[in-house]
From TrEMBL:
Assigned keywords, A-Z: Membrane, Transmembrane, Transmembrane helix
Compositionally biased tracts (Low complexity): 31-45, 52-70, 78-87
InterPro entries associated with the record: BaxI_1-like
Protein name, entry field: Putative YccA/Bax inhibitor family protein
Organism: Janibacter alkaliphilus
Amino acid sequence: MSNPFLERVEKDARSGYAGFHEPSAQERAAGQQTQQQGYSQQSYGQQGGYQQGYDQSGGVQQASHGHQLGQPGGPGQPTGYRQYGGPAPTQERAVTLDDVLMKTAGLFAVVLAAAAPAWYLAPTMPFLGLLGIAATLGLGIALAFMKTVNVPLIVALAAAEGVLVGAISRSYYDVFDVAATGAEPTSVFDSIVVQAVLATVCVFGAMLVLYKSGIVKVGQKFRAVVGMMTLGYFVFALINLGYALITDTAFGIGGSGMLGIGISLFAVGLASLNLAIDFDNINIAIQTGAPEKYSWMLSIGLIVTLVWLYLELLRLLGRLRSE
């Protein structure tokens, strides 16, 4: 598991969120008229219409990640992010933090709704986890390369993540909570699943504090290094999955030994760094006045990282309990 939306927001911000705006016929006509006026002004030695329009839309400001990006449009105002030589900005509302929080809560509810039946069906449908992995990979890659926001596919990806979480969580519960003790845990906090959930919440909170305090700073080099490491781990995870299926090994390469524990610690750390990038993506989108519907992309990116972090923590706890 990895987050396919790592570099998406920064690239979309630099392109002015091209493809995410849907101008009406009147707005396109107004853009063409502005274009013609700009050329006319240039012929008389005045400032070009494009540059003038760009400056009037709010200019640029230096964002936290080091690129020049447009200033945000306020709630209920046009986004104000205009491409050089492009049509006039549409009158759509700019994304806010509340938009991202609401979409994230909604998608998280979808994850839980899909995880619940998967939890109960997993013992009789052992292939359910693999089905969740395949669906998550397919939908995630498709969304990562789309130039528009496809809400149905985003919701479907959240549901696939839920199936994956439910099926894998149940398998860990059966092995480490029931089979290992011969009975269900006497305390809910003794469950490996609950411990993984609590650990995920703690890591999320810690990374949010580190990011907001400026201790963890997300810049170009940070994104590049984490992106390459994530891609490398993604390839390793696919190889490890194949190895585990072929050799019938519980955790694949490294097993539950020191090598395996080291791999899990590395994966947890990498997923945590991805959280910092998710936080920065949200910040960039708000600063640059991304369209409101872009909040769907930000939310599903955060959900994917949280699910990945949870699964890695679950694997780490499983390896530690196997010692």
